[in-house]
Design goal:
heterodimer; A: alpha/beta; Rossmann fold; six-stranded parallel β-sheet; six-stranded mixed β-sheet; 10 helices; 12 strands; B: 337 residues; mainly alpha; ABC transporter involved in vitamin B12 uptake, BtuC; two-stranded antiparallel ribbon; 14 helices; 3% strand; globular
Amino acid sequence: MKLKQILLASAVVLASTAGAFAADKFAVIMGNIPSANQFWAKVEQGALEKGKEMGIEVTVLGSPGGESDVAGQIALVEDQLTKGITGLALAPADPAALNPTVEKALKQGVKVVYIDRPGGVAGITYVGTDNEPAAALGGKYICDHIEKGSDVAILQGVMAIVNGSARAKGSRDALTACGMNIVAEQTAEWDNAKGQMVTENIITANPNLKALFASNDNMGMGAIEALKGAKMLDKVMVVGFDGNPEAAAAILKGEMAISIAQRPVHMGAIGVESLAKLIKGETLPPVVDTGAEIVDKSNAESYK
Amino acid sequence: MTDAVSRNPTTGWRDLRGRLLEDYGILLVVLAMILLLWALQPDYFMTAQNITNIIRQIGMNALLALGMYLVIVTAGIDLSVGSVMALAIMLLAIADTSGVPWPLVLLIGPLVGALIGIINGLGLTLLKLPHPFIMTLGTLNAVRGLCNLVTDGRPVSGISDEVRYLGTGDIPLPFGGEFAVIPVSAILLLVCYCGVAWFMRKVSLGRHIFAVGGNPQAARVSGINVNGVLVFVYAASGFFAGLAALLMAGRTGSGYPNLGIGAELDAIAAVIIGGASFFGGRGTVLGVFAGVLVMGLLRNGLNLMNISAFWQQTLIGIIIILAVWIDVLRRRARARR
């Protein structure tokens, strides 16, 4: 009798642990390879650590062709579906073009969340920074520190991606609200070298520029190089976005004023955690905001 | 040569073997890759799901490479195909979502592609630009710009199911379960490849393409309309890029302006791996398909093994160099014989 009870009890314990996550395999498909941008390296780190902590097999991959490689990203997802994943956290390379692939995953019973940027399939939770208010933080900082009516510029990201347009809108609205004179809004496609080039052209046309909001740190670093080259860095405030290590170093050196930090490690970790919740049958809100904070001289050391 | 075959059975066999290696050697490479990947990934590689995935994944490059092949046989190059594909997908997405009947929408991609191809060809023959690299480098940029201007860089989603059928449709097989299907895109590829292979062998224009690539001077002297042939191959390359756009419209359900950035290089790589000569006059359709498969299998296999994207790039680079080097060795050995 007693033996039977023990057997039964241990069977229940076994069943509950095995039923939880033992068979789960998650894939985190990012917008780029981790070495292309510190941001993705941190998303990867957060996802892998959380996977280890929860005992889930997590595979992290990025599109071979970089941020705009839609076909490559579709292939990555398809190949992971072949491998029988049960959860997919995806940073879609295009808001609409990945929809059929995501629908295919859902049809196979795979749980899906979007990370870093929302995609186009309705009902899928977005885990990431709410970009518009986050960018507005940067705009507001410029408003608080620069004289009203000054010339300011915005470096936009890829506008086709929701994050690009949301950050452009958040910063523009904040700067317009406090009466700044926006002289240029141009895209540098998230790229360091393009950020430098576009900034060079902006300051040539607008020598009285007082502040510049870059929609990511890569472009911000490029802008700093351009301003250094024109010996204008002491006159122009640069605000970045992402809180990358190189931006943190620039903030400590006084070259960049602040950066708006997303929390990519959280993004990776919460992405994995959210998938586990979905598999357990819990429901998620439409947006899980992973938060944003201002990186300035006081806390930049911890972002290096 | 035929005399030698009839007179000496040993050289005849050697000659045959050499020819087999030359024409089908690359297929051995494909076969070896399939066996290797199967051995490395026994649980996933030979599944119906993975095989249909591979077929869908190679579709775009297969069509671009087929067009690029025609151009490369004339010793030319078409750098504009990625941009052409992007413009075609944007225009067909806009047309489809604004209510143009779907049979007309299907024509938009190939027509837009052929039109830009004709412009490429005319730049080469009418403006007499010194090398196709220059004309198509120009259209690579100009067309990509246009494609962004059309929608201000925004994607267009909501393409209808009829238009998407070529890229995403499946014909279910009566056996083998849920994933045992023939993708409609596979049939499209088959038709295109067989069509071009037939055309190059049996139609005089096809043979003229080889003649122009082998020796344009001699071709001109023998009465071939060289300029006409050139305009035709660039138009064909654009046509296949437009068809690839239709495939991708099906696969993604939307038109997006970033489609095909760098795709021209993949297409060129596939043609070269497949044994076509960069100096024109030589190359087979079967070789092109093998080249496309080598790249597709490599990407699929490395994805399945979760190997870094850097290795994909590195390995494809090494394969390009090796493929051409083996070709050089083979030709040198034959010349000595």
